[in-house]
Amino acid sequence: MKIYRVQLKAYYLEKMKKFYTNLLQMQLVYEDERSFAVLAGTTRVYFEKDDAQPYYHVCFHLGSAFFDEIYNRLEKEKLLLSNEEGETSMYWKGKQAYFYDPDGNILEILERPFQQGEEESDGWYRVGEIGMPSTNIYELRDFLSPYIENQYKIEQDSFSFFGKEEGVGVLVKIGRNWYPTDRPAEVHPIKLVVSGNTEAYLTHPTLPYEITVRKEWSTLVPAVQFRIARPTNQMEKIIEFYGKGLGLQKVGEFQKHEGYEGVMFGIPDKSYHLEFTQHESGKPIPHPPEDQLLVFYIADTFMWNEMAERLLRMGYRQVPSENPYWDRGGITIEDPDGYRVVLMNTVGI
Hints:
alpha/beta; 2,3-Dihydroxybiphenyl 1,2-Dioxygenase, domain 1; 5 helices; elongated; Fosfomycin_Res_Enzymes; YycE-like_C; YycE-like_N; VOC domain-containing protein
């Protein structure tokens, strides 16, 4: 599963914000009096002020060079945790290290491959693990299984991974020590947004866990097909923008049909698609209002940035949104006809 968003409780809120933004070099993307959020690659991590001091286990994935940089920063501050052999630099399918943040959360950095393409990205990749203590890890696995794909088997009744290589819940029995410390696992509130098999909002009946499961492209609308149709007089440029620029797949086209030619782009397939038509007479196309938008919610920050940069390199224009909401977490770009496409780097509603 991809872990899009993690929301945890925090006690030393100001210290935590400085730790994550200054020492760990994560981008601050939101703050108010009682919370803040940072960007760890493709994962947004939110901390919300609490009167108690909870602690969690969170593992961050990153590449080799950035691992070394963060490791050296932590070593300089004497924050690294050692294992039973006294080692702070470990190895499990990649470089590995553990440390505390100001709240006492047991954090891990783990070298893992970059999954968006062959070329690795600088900085953080994602949250790869989130600890989820419970009284019965079999029950918690059964609770999640209908909604989230899982490749791991339970080999002991006190510990198991749940999910896939790109992201897992670490299911542990309450009281089991978090490696490499002697601190026993405790239950504290967790809110997650993750990818899964189907759209779902899960609240565990006894544990304070809320999990929103998002299917990246859903077909839950009870219709056999849905089309958004629009005229244009610039067919070649439209094909370039939506095909090469946005990266949508062409799912159909036609020529000389009662004076029209047309092309269809799937979002992502024929079930939901855009159609652009052009009449041989070149009928005038009215200029659209600035608040008429086509919005794509792209949870993966790397892919979102890649799409936006590709369109800008092709010469298409970024514009400020009429509604400032879309400029917070998104970018608005005009297509050849002046219609606006918003690329939002959030998980949506």
